[in-house]
């Protein structure tokens, strides 16, 4: 039976994560095992609901169905979430391996940042005469960041140079924070240190750029170093002097450790991979490695990447226009499914979009709420293909994670990403064998755009429905439940447009005035008057049953006759007169008394230039009818 390993992390350290996963995949080639990557993109500056919505993807798997779990701590710097995952693993009796941070009683995979950092410090001091240092750290609770800082302080202490560390600034792993700090530092007029040691390569590159914007050159004016030795930092100008943590080797070691745990060779073990400090142009070591070779390779691949990015962006824009043009939830499902069925080159033949069952229902009823933690027992299948086979059902048990999942011979990596707005869970996406898409942040972009366009569609359709309901209320007479004067005025505009365009439309206007309403109100009260109006309205609607009826005043009604009612207008008027009570002012009135004056006028395209021409004739006919009724 095929084994399953759950991997939990964020995608911000995409390059090191892809290296780690590549190593795991390589080490597990001879095993029958699939990797299930539960991936999200929360940041420290996100609001609490957004973080919750992102991290909710970690709650998706039932760990009792897994044979192991890995927490990639170098990408997941949320200690509480790590503790929750480990506790769930323990309750499920699933062996868990922790990368990048240590937890008591948990197997550990890491790298020796400490010794490599001390090597870096020795290189900076002995080769470049660096004394004054500013350390741009990650977060105070990040093991990686704190270990690197400790190595710097320990080295300086051992050299009796502790005062060389002038300042430590915590960036929270945000490049924008590094930019703000460097700008403020340069504008303060303070002398630059000899070196900025940055807790990762991203911060190092941002530091170089910001220093350049302030008129300083790296490495001529100041040295900058980083960590992780990612591709971007190698082709950056200047190439970043960095500590290579050997994440691919770390991933291989992680896979091998899981094999040992599964086979019973070990229960809890720590494996540490040696890191290597690699000088670069940013520390003035231009001769150490030829970064131009890497730059030429990247330049050669630039066209392919640009073409792929252009196609990807067009695809996202097409998804946007397809979804936002839909007027109903059913149309939304059918249109997006049709689009992805016809073109899923980017997504691949194994790709799934699964929605919370209340996603569609909440559009039509604002009282229906979406889940804010976890996922429902069943999810709705919006789009699903596995190896090109379409999943046939509309519902799917969430516990099974992947519609149409097959334990075939090949090993696969499945990536699960949340769809949400703030902490409202919309559902989740599944990609397969997507390390390249992870590395270039395509998964992040796809997830963000999908969540955003689903949210826009949901709110736009909800607002449209609310507006329609409000408009319906505004256009409805609350007493008789027929349309009111506002609706009739809109109908008049439509009819006038028909007249203006000379479409040859045939219609007639019937004007009604309820007799004796004042008598009923004065003699029996307004409740009786309301009942009388309702009876009169029912008569009009029952006779002119194929025509819209409008109450345009206290005792005034209008009907617009078309089709059969237009053709039979004279017969219908006769029928109405036969069904009415005889006109009288004498009391008491019969309990079913109804008396209504009526006038009808048909549109004459030869003489009528406006709808008011027709209405005026109908009104005059009604008053003539009222006069005749009173004379009787």
Defining key terms:
Alpha-Beta Plaits; Rossmann fold; 12-stranded mixed β-sheet; alpha/beta; 632 residues; 20 helices; 46% helix; 6-stranded mixed β-sheet
Entry summary:
With 632 residues, the protein is an alpha/beta fold. The protein has 20 helices and 22 strands. Among the domains are: 163 residues, 3-Layer(aba) Sandwich (Rossmann fold), CATH 3.40.50.2300; 147 residues, Reverse transcriptase/Diguanylate cyclase domain (Alpha-Beta Plaits).
CATH architecture of the domain at 111-247 and 268-293: 3-Layer(aba) Sandwich
What best-fitting shape do the alpha-carbon axes yield? elongated
Q: What kind of sheet is the major sheet?
A: 12 strands, mixed
Total helix count? 20
CATH class designation of the domain at 111-247 and 268-293: Alpha Beta
Number of strands: 22
Helix content: 40-55%
Low-pLDDT parts are: none
What is the gyration radius calculated from CA atoms?
37 Å
CATH superfamily placement of the domain at 111-247 and 268-293: Response regulator
**Average pLDDT figure:** 92
Strand content: 15-25%
Would you mind describing this structure in some detail?
The structure is a single chain. By secondary structure, the protein is an alpha/beta fold. Among the domains are: 111-247 and 268-293, Response regulator (Rossmann fold, 3-Layer(aba) Sandwich); 485-631, Reverse transcriptase/Diguanylate cyclase domain (Alpha-Beta Plaits, 2-Layer Sandwich). Helix content is 46%, strand content 19%. The strands form three sheets. Strands 1, 2, 3, 4, 5, 11, 13, 14, 15, 16, 17 and 18 form a twelve-stranded mixed sheet that branches. Helix 1 (14-27) links the parallel strand 1 and strand 2. Helix 1 crosses helix 9. The model has no long low-confidence stretch (mean pLDDT 92).
